[in-house]
Amino acid sequence: QVQLVESGGGLVQAGGSLRLSCATSTRTFDSYSMGWFRQAPGKEREFVAAISWHAGSTYYADSVKGRFTISRGNAKNTVYLQMNSLKPEDTAVYYCAAQGQYYRITAWGSEREYAYWGQGTQVTVSS
User: Fold this and answer.
1) 88 backbone dihedrals φ, ψ, rounded to 5°
2) What is the C-alpha to C-alpha distance for residues 118 and 36, in angstroms, rounded to an integer?
3) How close are the terminal C-alpha atoms of the chain, in Å?
4) Looking at the chain, which runs of residues are DSSP E strands?
5) Beta-bridge partner residues of 60
6) Helix (H, G, I), strand (E, B) or coil at 73
7) By the 8 A CB rule, do 33 and 91 touch?
8) What is the per-residue pLDDT across 42-90, written as a single tens digit (0 to 9) for each?
C-alpha cells in the first residue's frame, strides 16, 4: 500500500504561482507513475498532469498546458506540480495519484488508471 500526502496548497492572487508537493511512502518511488487531478466545487474530478515512472513522458490537460509543470524528485520520493499564471478557474482541491510500473497506463487522464490517491490540498485563486 502506498500512501500519498499532498502539501503546498493555499490562497493566491490571479497571476501568481504555487508549487504543490506529493510525498509518497514507497521506497521504490521511481517505479511509480504519478498524476495530479483536481476537483472544483460542484464539478467532477478532472485530470491535470501526469508523469511516467521513468520520467520519459509528461502529459497535461489543455487547460494547464504551458502554465503547469509536473516533475519528480526521486531522491525525495516526491512529485511536484509547479503552477504559474494561476487563474480563478484553477481553484479546486488538488489530488495526487500513483500507479505502479507493472500496470501499463493507456489513458493517462483517466482516474481508473491510478491505484493510489492522496487526500487532496486546497488551492484557491482570487481574482
Assistant:
1) -55, -30
2) 10
3) 40
4) 4-7, 10-13, 18-24, 32-39, 46-51, 58-60, 68-73, 78-83, 92-100, 116-117, 121-126
5) 49
6) strand
7) no
8) 999 999 999 998 767 999 999 999 999 999 988 889 999 999 999 999 9
Question: How far is residue 36's CA from residue 15's CA, in Å, rounded to a whole number?
Answer: 20
Nearest Cα to Cα of residue 118 among 62, 65, 78: 78
For residue 58, what is its C-alpha cell? 509528461
Give the whole-angstrom CA distance, residue 104 versus residue 82.
26
Amino acid at 34: M
CA distances from 25 to 68, 100, 108 (A): 24, 13, 22
